[in-house]
């Protein structure tokens, strides 16, 4: 996958310093779910507050939250031990550049941690439609809205600074080990032909760290499996990074995020369905959303225009399982 006309790392022009980084980014892109190639999930569901859903449609962007600002810190460490074990196993069979890079990776793993290498910005969806668990956790306990978003057969937005891909979350350590071992092996073997210069070692180490970060970010422990999550992951192409927006949550926590578009060329978010929570006044909320859709240029009968339904989940407010949300603060739960 990584190609070069000359010997990598020698007699290279300064302007090509980031070729390896670009190649690794392309590798990451290839391992995600490409909507134009893989339509396994025709619709993905995003549960949020009514306020949050209206803001998404008004801006035509989802807020992708930095991984270290999410409300589930366990997802950043659940894959650590398995990642280390797989890297150790591969190191035993490698020589040269890849071996040197893995030596550094294994040496610094405990001190640096894979989640510190790069910032991943997450906008999360579920394949579960009208799911009571999702309403409890993210849909304002039945007082929110679920946006059913079509996965369209078309290329996504292009950017010189960042790239985005969909990743299905795995809840099995065995499945994560299999994926990470294959990705790591493919990368290391592709780089084996290059000389072990300091520059090449640094680039290869960045590649390994990036793969490890993806393994961590797309792996959650089994107790979260009911979420059936698919993540829209956005990362910077180059080490310099991107400058995120910042907001402060109701509890005073600083939240970094990137507003991200799902479709290219300013196309409208393609909605299959808007599900209104069971504890909402259907007619009132329906009218609100119809007004926003009209103002953004949605045309009834088009592929972007949704049907409206009311949740068939039992009234969660009556069950008293979770306290009510407070509107704008639910925007933080777009992660």
Point out poorly predicted stretches: 1-24, 326-335
Widest sheet, order of strands: 5-6-3-2-8-7
Number of domains: 1
**Residue-averaged pLDDT, rounded?**
80
Work out the number of β strands: 10
Q: Largest beta sheet, briefly?
A: 6 strands, antiparallel
- Strand-and-helix sequence, N→C? HEHEHHEHEEHHEEEEHEH
Principal-axis shape equals elongated
Query: If you compute it from the alpha carbons, what radius of gyration comes out, rounded to the nearest whole angstrom?
Result: 22 Å
Total helical elements: 9
Helical residue percent band: 25-40%
Class by helix and strand content?
alpha+beta
**Share of residues in strands:** 15-25%
**Span of the ends, CA to CA:** 32 Å
């Amino acid at each position: 996958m990584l190609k070069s006309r000359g010997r990598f790392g020698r007699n290279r022009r300064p302007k090509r310093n980031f070729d390896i980084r670009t190649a690794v980014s392309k590798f990451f892109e290839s391992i995600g779910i490409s909507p134009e190639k893989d339509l396994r999930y025709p619709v993905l569901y995003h549960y949020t507050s009514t306020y949050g859903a209206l803001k998404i449609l008004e801006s035509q962007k989802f807020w992708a939250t930095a991984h270290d600002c999410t409300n589930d810190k366990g997802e950043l460490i659940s894959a650590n031990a398995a990642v280390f074990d797989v890297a150790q196993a591969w190191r035993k069979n490698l020589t040269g550049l890849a071996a040197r890079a893995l030596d550094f990776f294994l040496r610094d793993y405990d001190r640096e941690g894979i989640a510190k290498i790069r910032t991943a910005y997450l906008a999360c969806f579920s394949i579960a439609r009208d799911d009571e668990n999702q309403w409890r956790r993210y849909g304002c306990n039945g007082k929110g809205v679920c946006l059913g978003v079509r996965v369209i057969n078309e290329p996504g937005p292009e950017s010189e600074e960042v790239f985005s891909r969909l990743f299905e979350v795995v809840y099995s350590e065995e499945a994560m080990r299999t994926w990470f071992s294959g990705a790591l092996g493919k990368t290391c073997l592709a780089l084996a032909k290059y000389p072990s210069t300091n520059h090449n070692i640094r680039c290869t180490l960045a590649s390994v760290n990036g793969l490890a970060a993806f393994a961590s970010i797309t792996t959650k422990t089994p107790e979260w499996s009911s979420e059936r999550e698919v993540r829209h992951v956005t990362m910077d192409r180059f080490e310099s990074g991107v400058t995120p927006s910042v907001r402060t949550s109701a509890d005073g926590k600083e939240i970094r995020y990137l507003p991200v578009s799902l479709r290219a060329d300013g196309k409208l978010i393609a909605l299959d369905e808007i599900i209104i929570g069971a504890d909402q006044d259907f007619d009132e909320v329906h009218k609100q959303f119809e007004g926003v859709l009209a103002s953004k240029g949605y045309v009834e009968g088009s592929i972007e225009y949704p049907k409206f339904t009311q949740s068939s989940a039992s009234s969660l407010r009556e069950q008293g399982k979770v306290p009510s949300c407070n509107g704008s603060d639910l925007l933080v739960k777009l992660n």
